[in-house]
Design brief:
287 residues, alpha/beta, single chain, 11 helices, 14% strand
Length: 287
């Protein structure tokens, strides 16, 4: 029994020692991996810095004039539109992981009314990248309207007489937006009113892109209004009275077109951190 006890104690000591060795080796591997990725992190910092400089190149220290704003937007539009649509989106979307690429880029804005203590779609406008109107209709909610919110929405009772039925309008909207990159402001509310979801990789929301807030001189942790963004970034006054869905859609599209190159580069740089080299080995996918 004495010999057996000694052998067991010896085996326990050996197991604990081997465990300590494995832990030490794992720690050494992580340290080496961290050192190896140091240069990659530095390159990433340089990319992010370059992206910010690209965004701030036009500056927002002073509000540009209408002519300067329109010329800068058109210059970026021509340069961006000259690219092939497949190459344009390959910066953000891996073609190998998609069955089909977005057909084109559209901008959308919706106006809502109040029904049964919730919002309902009352008007929707969709334009393409060249600002051609694809959809611009009033929509009749399925429930009784309690508040038209005319002060903000511009919707009045007589508009509902020419509105499309809700189901018909929603079906047409979904057909247009399918496989498209959608631009807009605070799109979560618009999608909720339509009753649809959209892939996040195909959304460009001017309310959710922090660099735009910095350019406009607004607080980074606050969601900016489209009115303030349009004034600071485009030198354009919008929403002076009731909201116009066509005017708002054009403003969101022009903001995107002005900063499209830097915006797409920013999204590409963010994906860089999801590479396996930046994750611990114990949670990395096994081969």
């Amino acid at each position: 029994m004495r010999h057996v006890r000694k052998s067991l104690e010896g085996s326990e000591t050996t197991d604990s020692g081997s465990t300590d060795i494995l832990r030490m080796k794992g720690r050494q591997r992580r340290i080496k991996k961290k050192k190896k990725s140091g240069s990659e992190k530095q390159r990433m910092r340089e990319c992010v810095k370059a992206s910010r400089e690209c965004l701030t190149g036009s500056g927002c220290g002073s509000v540009p004039s209408d002519s300067e704003s329109e010329s800068s937007v058109s210059d970026n539009s021509d340069a961006f539109a000259s690219c092939d649509i497949t190459n344009r989106h390959s910066l953000v979307i891996e073609t190998s992981s998609m069955e089909c690429l977005p057909r084109h880029i559209v901008a959308i804005d919706c106006e809502m009314v109040s029904v049964a203590n919730k919002s309902a779609l009352a008007k929707c406008t969709i334009i393409d990248y060249e600002e051609r109107v694809l959809f611009d209709h009033y929509v009749r909610p399925e429930q009784q309207i309690r508040d038209y919110r005319t002060k903000w929405s511009g919707i009045q009772p007589h508009h509902m007489k020419i509105g499309l039925p809700h189901k018909e309008a929603v079906q047409k909207i979904k057909t247009i937006l399918e496989n498209c990159v959608v631009i807009g402001h605070d799109l979560g509310h618009d999608f909720a009113a339509i009753g649809m979801t959209h892939p996040s990789r195909n959304i460009r929301d001017t309310a959710k892109f922090p660099p735009l807030r910095e350019l406009a001189g607004l607080k980074r942790n606050w969601s900016p209004s489209l009115r303030n963004l349009a004034l600071c970034l485009l030198g354009r006054k919008i929403q002076c009275g009731s909201h116009c869905s066509l005017e708002d859609a054009r403003a969101a599209l022009d903001i995107y077109r002005k900063y499209a190159a830097a915006w797409e580069k920013h999204l590409l740089d963010k994906k860089f951190w999801f590479h396996d080299q930046f994750w611990p080995e114990d949670i990395a996918p096994s081969n």
